[in-house]
Design a protein that fits this description.
- Keywords: Lyase, Pyridoxal phosphate.
- This protein is an alpha/beta fold.
- The chain folds into two domains: 121 residues, Aspartate Aminotransferase, domain 1; 233 residues, 3-Layer(aba) Sandwich (Aspartate Aminotransferase, domain 2).
- It contains twelve helices and 13 strands.
- Strands 2-8-7-6-5-3-4 form a seven-stranded mixed β-sheet, sandwiched between helices. Strands 9-10-13-12 form a four-stranded antiparallel β-sheet, with helices on one face. A two-stranded parallel sheet has the order 1-11.
- Strand 3, helix 5 and strand 4 form a beta-alpha-beta unit.
- Helix 3 runs parallel beside helix 9, helix 4 runs parallel beside helix 5 and helix 10 runs parallel beside helix 12.
- The radius of gyration is 21 Å and the shape is globular.
- Pyridoxal-5'-phosphate binds next to helix 4.
């Protein structure tokens, strides 16, 4: 098993030369312990996180109250770094513990008054999406779930369901089940034509698939740190800046108010995306997540995407050659960062691969998610081990 990087010149688009790639790999100690192809589930933690954790303890050990000011600088810096990665202006992103909390906050901005009371989504979403909007049924939200009849969204069918009754259309940029991406420019154009807002769960793409929210004109984008962004415990929300003044979350907290730091009750909203903040934030996760984000931003998502496509292509080619059923789309523009394989007894196969030091995930299908720090050799190691498992 190859554990230390490519044994021959890598034939991926050279976003990093071999030396720089080895240096990048050295930033992720986990890669020295296994073949880690699981970044669609949980990204590898960068070595620099250890220093942040240590400093955090030092801060707690020597606590003074004005630390909160530094922590707010750190929190804002992380939110603005996410914004930069999304092609969004500073101040247009807010963070919180998880995507579910932020989605519910977005959902609480609407009255769901007929005739515009529909929330259109699909049966390929992460379970939090239908669950949150089902809960808002109490306030009038009419949930309309478009069936995929399989693993791939029929975008024509989705768009056919959008009309003047549609308030929101909420879809993932790439499905966590199949890795298939939605054609966002097309969806945004169609939704805006009928006066609906587009809410995108980009957890499975941000960090591995380029996304320019400003160019797209998309209304709301959510995602989080612990997958392709190599962070931990924090999620983010972007709202199109010119839409922000129209949205007033009922689920809110004191940090969303204009007088938050006077500790008086606010009478208006804080500027920008901060109106979607909640209560006291947890700074550690943003501070730790900054490390991975900086490493990835230094490479650039276009280059990461080229690398990712080369590695997922290798997995696809090997799967096709071995006769393994592929669930993900094979066209590069239709797939995200993951390749999903339909293998018998997949969950047990995943566990047995782990005992061989090959780490992937299983969510109905075996999911292999190589990131920019992985190599073609590692994808081959995965496929070799998988073929052995299937022919046991
Ligand atoms: C597409 C997608 N959305 C959302 C989530 C997670 O949401 P939350 O942060 O609420 O746990 C995940 C995975 O963890 C995901 O794959």
């Amino acid at each position: 098993m190859s554990r230390s990087g490519p044994t021959r010149a890598p034939d991926w688009p050279q976003c990093l030369d071999t030396t720089a790639h080895a240096a990048l790999r050295a930033e992720f100690p986990l890669l020295q312990t296994c073949v880690y192809l699981n970044s669609n589930s949980t990204g590898a933690a960068p070595r620099g996180a250890e220093r942040v954790l240590h400093d955090y303890w030092e801060t707690l050990r020597t606590w003074r109250d004005d630390v909160w000011q530094d922590w707010h600088v750190g929190l804002d810096r992380y939110a603005d770094s996410v914004a930069a990665l999304l092609g969004a202006p500073p101040g247009s992103v807010v963070t919180d513990a998880n995507l579910s909390a932020l989605l519910a906050r977005v959902a609480s901005c609407f009255d769901y008054r007929p005739p515009r009371d529909r929330v259109v989504t699909t049966d390929l979403e992460y379970p939090t999406v239908p669950f949150v909007f089902r809960a808002f049924g109490r306030y009038g939200a009419q949930l309309d779930v478009v069936g995929s009849g399989g693993h791939h969204l029929d975008q024509d069918a989705l768009e056919a369901r959008l009309d003047e009754r549609t308030l929101l259309v909420c879809v993932s940029h790439a499905s966590f089940i199949s890795g298939a991406t939605v054609d966002l420019p097309r969806l945004v154009a169609r939704a805006h034509d009928v006066g609906a807002l587009v809410v995108v769960d980009a957890y499975q793409t941000v960090g591995v698939v380029p996304l320019d929210v400003t160019a797209l004109g998309v209304d709301v984008v959510l995602g989080g740190a612990h997958k392709w962004l190599c962070g931990v415990g924090t999620a983010f929300l972007y709202v199109r800046p010119d839409l922000v003044p129209d949205l007033e979350p009922a689920a809110t907290g004191w940090q969303a108010g204009d007088r938050a730091f006077t500790f008086q009750p606010s009478t208006d909203w804080a500027p920008g995306a901060r109106r979607f903040a909640g209560g006291t934030p947890y700074p550690l996760t943003s501070l730790v997540s900054q490390v991975g984000l900086d490493l990835l931003a230094g490479i650039g998502v276009e280059a990461i995407r080229a690398h990712s496509l080369a590695l997922t292509q290798r997995a696809l080619d090997r799967a096709h050659a071995a006769g393994i059923a592929v669930v993900s789309p094979t066209e590069p523009h239709r797939r995200g960062g993951v390749v999903c394989l339909d293998v018998p007894d997949g969950e047990a196969v995943k566990r047995r691969l782990a005992t061989r030091g090959v780490i992937c995930s299983w969510r109905g299908y075996l999911r292999v998610g190589p990131h920019v720090y992985n190599t073609l050799d590692e994808v081959d190691t995965f496929m070799d081990a998988l073929e052995k498992e299937l022919h046991r």
